[in-house]
Specification:
Rossmann fold; Serine Threonine Protein Phosphatase 5, Tetratricopeptide repeat; 4 domains; 6-stranded mixed sheet; 3-stranded antiparallel sheet; 32 helices
Length: 708
């Protein structure tokens, strides 16, 4: 194999074989020697090996045929399994090879590559931004993997020497590169010989094997051919077996699941925790778009904030192959993120890198880190996933800060307070799609909790969700919130299902979207599919109380009360000191269906004078025979209906518990006119089970748009 290298500057700077040799002398070596992996081969030796000797080549020294071979081989390399799913690595290799073939050596300096491929300023600080070095290292690894997995030696081999961005082209014998057979000593790509010009075929010359007289070959040709074929077959089998063993014994086990631990806030200001947590969430969301990878949700990841557990312990609890941990420092208008990826099965480092960006490009940075992780673990990404990660997402830094504070409040369970921050973020930057989606979620949650009239909450949720999609159709949260809004507001089950499937297509690792889809499936009566989605939620969010509560409620609506209670007990163990609003309602409804009415009433009383709690508490009173107390809750609910318009469906639940069907249906009709959200649960709500045998019930279900 002979190697052709392109140099930026004097070749003596790159290869020790040419120490002391001036460029003017290089041409005189053309007919006497060539460079082969730092070995010198004489012209006579080269001829015996059936190739024309050639020294280190410059672009002018590469014939058009060789340039074509390099480009053809480049296409094979970037389309290979080693480079599959790594668009940045493909682009990087194509960039440096094409620059080298065109002789554009100045473009192969680190700063120039950083500017051309990664959008860095020409004068950027390469000491603190190693993006080009990291990508070059990755390309070297992928090239090594490609040639290791290759079944046969290629005509040309592309190498990227360590410490250089100038590729090296190593050639097999030139005949092998030019012809199917290597039995002639004609120099490949040389000018036609006189015989060829005259139309005669040149006579093939076969080298005589050492110490084997030609006369013996003539007497026993068949025996020799058989022996040689047998030896060749044995060698090929042995070589293939060795390659397979070497590849299997040295290959790193595939990484198919990962957890992003909370970025550590190193600013020294605890008030910046919301920023570190927000950046962690953005990174999880970006990496979650890779469908071939299971990414643990934010709620589970955040439980390890400040933990003293070892990485293998965390990985075992989460059931993941790898963990990314890191830190973040915010100083003025700049952000520095340091991240490292660890194989949790061996506790070995896979990759580490530091990034420095200004606040306006920090969202693009999150996508860049996600892309780097996906490339490093050789996870296959679809072209659509690559495009979504690469899309430009500039943002106003003030709007972003307000958005992150609003998201922090939303995640802490205070959507009412979050609304103010998110609206202010939108006022600063009306094109901020993520802020519109988060505001939609805030309105939806206040409406579902009964803290805001349905007629106010759900229309605003729909408006903000639609705006988020208009600004960024690739934002899964926008589609999820639109699905929720049309489900609660207009009972548009078709649109809701379509939007949820689109959200899952955009982020198949979103536990919250899977949970929303599970509730949708339950409400339309597809219970087995809903339970399957509940199990998926637990896989993506395995150590969060929120996922267990979600699963518990889904089991409750599926009338599987023991499983529901088990999930609530698991949630309680995961979060011993939960917020006051978290457990009472789901525990109360489960206790009611298990006949534990006293315990149920105790849980509902913890929630105070809220319509949802009053309705279910009245139902429990009715079923335990406390009729007066049940009617007392009806009076309170009627006051809520007058003030906020919420409570009609809940009154129907109390009458259903009392066995007063006519009153129950009368209030269900009032709920239908008011488009009460409670009716979306009509098909699965255990509290209305006593009404299902009544003919009026089926008609009501149809009018809500639900299948019977």
């Amino acid at each position: 194999m002979e190697c052709s290298e392109q140099f930026v500057g004097d070749p003596t700077d790159e290869c020790p074989c040419f120490h002391g040799v001036k460029r003017a002398k290089v041409d005189r070596l053309l007919s006497a020697q060539r460079h082969v992996c730092c070995d010198k081969v004489t012209h006579t030796e080269a001829k015996g090996r059936m190739f024309t000797p050639e020294p280190v080549s410059t672009p002018d020294g590469l014939s058009p045929e060789r340039v074509g071979l390099v480009r053809d081989h480049l296409k094979e390399v970037v389309a290979s399994r080693a480079f599959a799913g790594s668009k940045r690595a493909q682009d990087f290799l194509q960039l440096i090879v094409e620059h080298a073939l065109a002789g554009r050596f100045d473009s192969l300096r680190e700063r120039m590559i950083g500017a051309e491929m990664f959008g860095r300023p020409i004068g950027y600080d390469t000491a603190n931004d190693a993006v080009v070095r990291v990508k070059a290292t990755e390309v070297r690894k992928k090239l090594a993997q490609y040639y290791q997995e290759s079944d046969k030696p290629p005509a040309v081999r592309i190498e990227l020497p360590t410490g250089s961005y100038v590729p090296k082209f190593c050639w097999e014998s030139l005949e092998a590169a030019a012809q199917p057979s290597a039995e002639t000593d004609l120099p490949a790509f040389a000018e036609e010989t006189a015989q060829e010009k005259s139309g005669e075929r040149p006579e093939a010359k076969i080298d005589e094997p050492t110490r084997l007289p030609w006369e013996k070959l003539r007497r026993a040709p068949n025996m020799l051919v058989s022996v040689l074929l047998g030896l060749g077959l044995i060698a090929m089998i042995g070589y293939a077996g060795f390659k397979s063993w070497f590849r299997d014994s040295n290959a790193r086990p595939e990484i198919r699941s990962i957890a992003i631990l909370p970025l550590q806030n190193l600013s020294g200001d605890p008030g910046q925790d919301y920023f570190a947590d927000g950046m962690t969430e953005e990174l999880i969301a970006d990496l979650g778009q890779v469908s071939a990878l299971r990414v643990i949700s934010r709620t589970s990841a955040m439980t390890y904030k400040g933990t003293k557990k070892t990485l293998p312990e965390i990985a075992h609890e989460l059931g993941v192959d790898a963990i990314m941990e890191g830190s973040i420092v915010r100083e003025g208008n700049q952000v520095r993120i340091t991240a490292q990826l660890i194989d949790a099965r061996t506790d070995h480092h896979i990759w580490a890198h530091s990034y420095v960006r200004d606040l306006t490009s920090v969202l693009a940075l999150q996508a860049e880190v996600a892309q780097a992780i996906a490339d490093e673990i050789s996870i296959k990404m679809t072209p659509q996933e690559q495009a979504r990660l690469a899309r430009a997402r500039p943002v106003n830094s003030e709007a972003q800060d307000l958005y992150l504070q609003g998201k922090h409040l939303l995640n802490e369970g205070d959507p009412q307070k979050a609304i103010g921050y998110l609206q202010e973020a939108i006022d600063k930057d009306p094109t901020y799609a993520s802020a519109h989606a988060a505001l939609a979620e805030s309105y939806g949650r206040t409406g579902e909790a009964g803290w805001l009239p349905y007629t106010e909450a759900f229309p605003r949720q729909k408006t903000e969700a639609a705006k988020a999609i208009e600004l960024d159709d690739a934002l899964p949260e926008g589609h999820a919130e639109l699905a929720n809004a049309v489900m609660d507001l207009s009972w548009d089950w078709t649109t809701s299902g379509k939007e949820l499937r689109r959200a899952l297509e955009l982020n198949p690792n979103s536990a919250s979207v899977h949970a929303t889809y599970a509730f949708y499936l339950e409400r339309v009566g597809r219970l087995p599919e809903a339970i399957a989605e509940a199990k998926r939620v637990l896989q993506l969010d395995p150590v969060s109380s929120h996922s267990s509560i979600t699963a518990g409620i889904l089991y409750y609506f599926a009338h599987q009360y023991d499983q529901a209670l088990t999930q609530l007990q698991r949630a309680s163990a995961l979060e011993p000191n939960p917020p006051a609003f978290l457990f009472p309602f789901p525990l109360g409804v489960i206790y009611t269906e298990k006949g534990m009415y006293g315990e149920a009433v105790g849980e509902f009383q913890k929630l105070g004078d809220k319509p949802h709690a009053l309705g279910h508490m009245g139902n429990a009173y009715a079923r335990m025979g406390k009729v007066a107390e049940a009617h007392g809750t009806i009076s309170k609910l009627e006051e809520h209906v007058q003030k906020t318009g919420i409570g009609r469906y809940e009154i129907a639940l109390v009458y259903a518990g009392l066995g007063e069907k006519d009153e129950a249906f009368a209030w269900l009709e009032k709920s239908l006119v008011a488009h009460d959200k409670g009716l979306t649960y009509l098909k699965i709500d255990p509290c209305v089970d006593p009404l299902r045998s009544d003919l009026r019930f089926g008609g009501l279900v149809r009018r809500v748009g639900l299948p019977l």
